[in-house]
Structures are given as structure tokens and as C-alpha cells.
Amino acid sequence: MKRLLIFFVLAAVSQANASIVQPLDPAVDGLHSNLGASQEVADDFFLSGLTTLGTLGWYGRYDDATAPPNPTDFLIRIFSDSGGAPDPLGPFFSLATSATPVSTGMTTLDSLPWYFYSVDLGSPILGAGRYWLSIAENDASTPTGGTRDWRWGESNTFGERAVIVGNASVFAPEKGLDLAFSVQTVPEPSTWLLLGTGLVLAAFRRRRRA
Prior knowledge:
Order of helices and strands: HEEEEEEEEEEEEEEH
Strand content: over 45%
Largest sheet: 8 strands, antiparallel
Radius of gyration: 20 Å
Helix content: 10-25%
Distance between the termini: 13 Å
């Protein structure tokens, strides 16, 4: 029983420190994602149970080497999944925020710098399932179009993403590289309680049989 309790504590700590991580591949160009421009992008992620979202981090760059707005304005949205795409009825979570661009020391093959951004999402609680994250630059000091469009960095894992192009009002799913972002996640206490209860009951049954 003592070993079981130790295992439960370690499992809880491990889950508390879990996160979603899709690292940046600096050699890949990234995708334009700008409000008011020609394209906005969303990428999917999955949760196995009731979960609190903490800090969101992501990577981006511009199509020239001019210093980015500091801080930079973004619109961050989370959608439920609807048939393999973001819910056309709209997001259930939306955050207009500013983030400080931090140089990563990494550059594209054309020597353009990559930046890292992070914000606190305010601890929204989501259930198990598939979701879609959209990050779009929305800074008035950055002209849309031309050589100043912001690009969301990509990872090197092939998966599914969704885009709005031109005047479309909903996201269309497509195959391609995942987008580069990370989310700190913390399972809710009810998840730990259910896990611990199951482990204790299993141990009790084994002792009764013995």
C-alpha cells in the first residue's frame, strides 16, 4: 500500500507539470497569420481529461529584418472541434493581448530572426477532447501585406491545421506541418482524485484476494 501511495504522488506531480509542446523548426518558413491580411491559421491539440490551461508560448517572425513592435498585439482564440475543423459558430475562448517579442537567436535560412512570445491564458478549464488554437497578429503599427506580414512558426511534425484565406468566414482544414507552440497544462484535482481512488480500490481488492 505504501508503494502504491508513493506511485500516486509521483503520478500526480508528473501530471501537474505536463504540457503540450510543439517545438519550432527554424528552417521552415512559417505561415502568415494576421487579422485583416490574407490568412489566419489554427492548429489542433488534444486533452485527455479535465484540464486547466496556464501559460501559452509561441514563435513567430516577420518577412523582413525590421524590429517588431514591442510589445506586439495578438488575438488568441480557442475553438471546439466540429467535424475535424474549428467550430464555425466561433471560439469559446478569446483573448486580445500584447506579448513582448524575445529573440531566440535562431534565424530562417534567409537570416531573418525568430521571436518567442508568451502570455498567461488566465487558467481556463477545458474538458477532454480535441481543440483548435488560433494566434493572429493584430498590431496597428504593423502594415498588413507587403514585407511586414507576421508568420507563425511551424514545427517539423506533419499533422492537421486549419486556415481562413481571403474573405472566408470559417476555417478550412488542411494537411501540413504543425504550428510551433506550447501550453502549460494542469489536470484538475478531480482527475487526481479519480486516479487515486482507482489505485486504492485496485490495491484493496488484491489484498482481499490474498
